[in-house]
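Renewal narrative, Specific Aim 1. Our central claim is that a sequence can be written position by position from structural information alone. The example that follows is taken directly from our test logs and has not been curated for this report. It begins with the structure tokens describing the chain, in the order in which they were read.
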């Protein structure tokens, strides 16, 4: 008998069944006697099977190559390729096909050979119908059981493979100890976390990995014997890395397994008790968590810009220092430092330069400290210094003088050379207070006293400072109530075209009608409003009310005049600044050209790119842009070319002194010439005398504003002026 070696392995195990058949088995009847073949086919078809036939072994082999045959009813003796060739083909290609030999051969040797070739059964002709059907049914059941068995084994292999993959890819160390505390299993995570190979760990005692400080704790936690809720959860230990150059922290969850197939606890049948056989545990790397907690703790007690202690840590150390001073009957000093001119630098050059300046100041202040002193940043440009063990005021004066001297040297930030100074208020324990709150408050009051008398110095607290500070604090509290109580008023000052003798615009100026102090001018509260950021709320109120007033004027037929509104840098920073103005205009049905936004040069220099973008957007809606107090700030021709500016307003300080100062006169003429060259409008502010008027007129400045033409007035007076616009001005003798 020869094998068909030309058949390749593509007919092998890929033909195996992996699950129970969803349709009747295919039965192939192979017999060279046509009558016998038809009889078997009819019989199998009657039983519900799918049936096919072949007349010899060669034809059967071809069908096996292309069809999934479940059962072959095979005759051995056929012309050409016989039944043994078919069985040999099935064996060689590992086909999942059951062979039932149905043969007229009666010798024992023939049956033995058939079974040797893998036949499921041997039935002699003539056969019993029951025997044949029983054999076929049993063969099919055997095939189904084998298929189910293969499926289950495949699932187990996949499950085991998946389990191993999950365990080995786990971010945690998974381990099993025997009853003596030796490792019997550990996953691959140990290699990346501790640097050991898995095989290096197996058989070693767990104590070899535990940091010496934690051995006692690990004896009951790492090698846990308890189960259920009493087992160890989230116990922190330190494990040693192989290279011993670092210590990693772990959060151990040691989970002993109760009676189960793993056999961590083994049942003893005679006494029905459990025998401890080992520990299952998971060790989780918590290095990142501990680092994050340290960062959070640092952030909670430090200023992230300068890395100095913050207000919380300062208060904690001050509380301890007071307790120490009380026990030892010693003194301590608290200094409150506020940088002078920092706001100007921050507004002019932007927050980035301001932040770097604060970092440089903090570094320089550190070098002025003694060991044990605490320097804290408590917000903005304010610092607090705690000086424990200060024997006298002279000791505090030495440090304060050292700080002031240190800050006199310029700071080089990028291409800028910056100068700052500081105002320092000092309070002493126990003379100026015996509590943390009183010492901080009195140092703050002393600092405000230094600010009030010219800045750049230091002063110790004394009781008569309290009245001035109380007035300042009272004004701040009153300012916060002013918006709610509708205490603000808008006054209007006319802007005059001396060639046409007309009021072409009104500048809106805010006034505070204080219920006790009377009318307060902006110079007394605008800076405070900016410091407290109430300027945002006040500025929005101004825009809304000016638009509403302008609508009333237009309804009266006064529809040729525009309103100029001052805007601070803090307002310009608001994300919704542009949309707020546009919505106010839409709400009151006012075209954009009847509103002019006035900004100072310093405002312009602050956050330039963002500010320019917002001003351009306003200009795109025909809103006019004016630079107020021009000549006193830091702007340059380059900025003027980039900005959508319509008007320059010459600062009143130049107008006031122009008759006595050739320099001021030259500046005014230069500004007028520059504005004409850039095709900008010019308004001279603060015109109060006829001489000033005539001189400006000679220099061809046609737009003016000042007391000579009208002081700031309430809305009803502004309406009267606008109604009598041309007539009143024509009667003014100085405009003839």
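The sequence written for that structure reads:
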């Amino acid at each position: 008998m020869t094998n068909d070696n030309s058949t390749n392995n593509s007919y092998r195990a890929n033909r195996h069944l992996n699950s129970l058949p969803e349709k009747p088995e295919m039965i192939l009847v192979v017999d060279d006697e046509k009558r016998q073949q038809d009889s078997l086919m009819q019989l199998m078809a009657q039983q519900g099977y799918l049936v096919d036939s072949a007349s010899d072994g060669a034809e059967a082999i071809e069908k096996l190559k292309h069809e999934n045959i479940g059962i072959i009813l095979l005759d051995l003796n056929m012309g050409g390729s016989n039944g043994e060739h078919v069985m040999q083909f099935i064996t060689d290609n590992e086909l999942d096909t059951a062979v039932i030999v149905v043969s007229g051969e009666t010798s024992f040797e023939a049956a033995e050979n058939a079974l040797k070739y893998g036949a499921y059964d041997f039935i002699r002709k003539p056969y019993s119908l029951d025997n044949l059907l029983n054999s076929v049914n049993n063969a099919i059941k055997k095939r189904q059981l084998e298929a189910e068995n293969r499926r289950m084994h495949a699932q187990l292999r996949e499950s085991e493979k998946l389990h191993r993959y999950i365990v080995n890819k786990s971010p945690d160390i998974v381990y099993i100890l025997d009853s003596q505390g030796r490792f019997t299993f550990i996953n691959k995570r140990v290699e990346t976390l501790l640097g050991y190979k898995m095989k290096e760990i197996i058989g070693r005692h767990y104590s070899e990995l535990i940091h010496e400080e934690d051995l006692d704790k690990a004896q009951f936690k790492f090698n846990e014997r308890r189960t259920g809720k009493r087992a160890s959860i989230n116990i922190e230990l330190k494990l040693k890395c192989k290279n011993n150059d670092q210590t990693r922290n772990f959060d151990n969850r040691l989970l002993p397994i109760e009676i189960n197939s793993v056999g961590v606890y083994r049942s003893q049948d005679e006494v029905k008790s459990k025998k401890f056989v080992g520990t299952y545990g998971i060790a989780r790397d918590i290095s990142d968590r501990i680092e994050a907690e340290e960062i959070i703790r640092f952030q909670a007690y430090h200023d992230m810009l300068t890395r100095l202690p913050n207000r919380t840590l300062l208060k904690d150390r001050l509380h301890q220092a007071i307790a120490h001073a009380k026990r030892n009957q010693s003194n301590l000093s608290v200094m409150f430092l506020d940088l002078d001119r920092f706001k100007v630098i921050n507004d002019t050059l932007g927050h980035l330069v301001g932040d770097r300046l604060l970092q440089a100041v903090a570094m320089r202040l550190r070098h002025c400290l003694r060991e044990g002193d605490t320097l804290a940043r408590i917000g903005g440009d304010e610092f607090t210094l705690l000086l424990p063990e200060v024997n006298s005021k002279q000791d505090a004066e030495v440090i304060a003088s050292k700080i002031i001297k240190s800050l006199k040297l310029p700071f080089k930030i990028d291409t800028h050379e910056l100068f700052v100074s500081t105002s320092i208020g000092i309070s002493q324990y126990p003379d100026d207070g015996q509590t943390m709150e009183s010492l901080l408050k009195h140092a703050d009051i002393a600092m405000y006293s230094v600010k009030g008398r010219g800045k750049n110095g230091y002063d110790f607290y004394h009781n008569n400072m309290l009245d001035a500070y109380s007035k300042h604090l009272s004004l701040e509290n009153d300012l916060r109530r002013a918006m709610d109580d509708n205490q603000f008023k808008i006054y209007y000052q006319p802007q005059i075209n001396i060639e046409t003798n007309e009021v072409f615009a009104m500048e809106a100026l805010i006034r505070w009608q204080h219920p006790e102090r009377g009318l307060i001018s902006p110079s007394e509260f605008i800076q405070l409003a900016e410091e407290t950021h109430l300027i945002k709320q006040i500025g929005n109120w101004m825009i809304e009310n000016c638009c509403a007033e302008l609508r009333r004027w237009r309804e009266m037929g006064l529809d040729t005049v525009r309103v100029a509104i001052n805007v601070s840098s803090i307002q310009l920073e608001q994300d919704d600044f542009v949309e707020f103005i546009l919505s106010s205009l839409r709400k009151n049905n006012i075209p954009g050209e009847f509103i002019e936004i006035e900004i100072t040069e310093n405002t312009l220099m602050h956050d330039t790119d963002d500010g320019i973008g917002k001003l351009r957007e306003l200009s795109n809606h025909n809103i006019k842009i004016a630079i107020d107090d021009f000549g006193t700030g830091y702007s340059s021709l380059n900025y003027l070319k980039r900005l959508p500016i319509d008007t320059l307003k010459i600062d009143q300080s130049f107008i006031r002194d122009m008759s006595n100062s050739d320099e001021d006169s030259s500046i005014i003429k230069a500004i007028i010439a520059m504005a004409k060259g850039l095709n900008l409008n010019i308004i001279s502010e603060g015109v109060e005398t006829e001489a000033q008027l005539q001189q400006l007129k000679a220099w061809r400045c046609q737009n003016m504003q000042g007391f000579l033409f009208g002081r700031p007035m309430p809305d009803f007076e502004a309406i009267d002026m606008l109604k009598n616009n041309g007539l009143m001005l024509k009667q003014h003798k100085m405009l003839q």
